[in-house]
Amino acid sequence: MRKSEIVFGSVILGVGVLLLLGALFHIDVWSLICPAGLIVIGVLLIYRTQKAPDSGNVKIRFVGDMRLTGNWHVQAEETWG
Fold first, then answer.
1. Tens digits of residue pLDDT in 11-65
2. How many folded domains does the chain comprise?
3. Which of 41, 52, 65, 71 is deepest in the core (most CB within 10 A)?
4. Residue 75 maps to a domain
5. CA torsion sign, 2 to 7 to 9 to 10?
6. Which residues contact 32 (CB under 8 A, 6 or more apart)?
């Protein structure tokens, strides 16, 4: 089993538990999930940037930021979608 499958399954399970507890105890869970989600995304971006090799050539681009024209050169890059 890949690490990403474990993380994704854990997130889905955690959100399900929070929603169930929110329904049982009449808590507005969405006011907790949205800020927590942004914090998790920020921590992951920082962590993944620190894990990058020390080659000095680190680029983080999202799919919408890519403009590929002409001849493409194969490079060791990571693209987030």
1. 888 888 888 888 899 888 878 788 888 888 888 777 766 665 666 666 666 666 6
2. 1
3. 52
4. no
5. positive
6. 18
Q: What is the DSSP string of 7-56?
A: HHHHHHHHHHHHHHHHHHHT--THHHHHHHHHHHHHHHHHHHHHHS-TTS
In a domain, 76, yes or no: no
Would residue 46 count as lying in a domain?
A: yes
10 Å CB burial of residue 19 (0-12, 13-18, 19+) is middle
CA distance 41 to 47: 10
Task: Name the amino acid, one letter, at 8.
Answer: F
pTM of the model: 0.45
Do the domain assignments include residue 79?
no
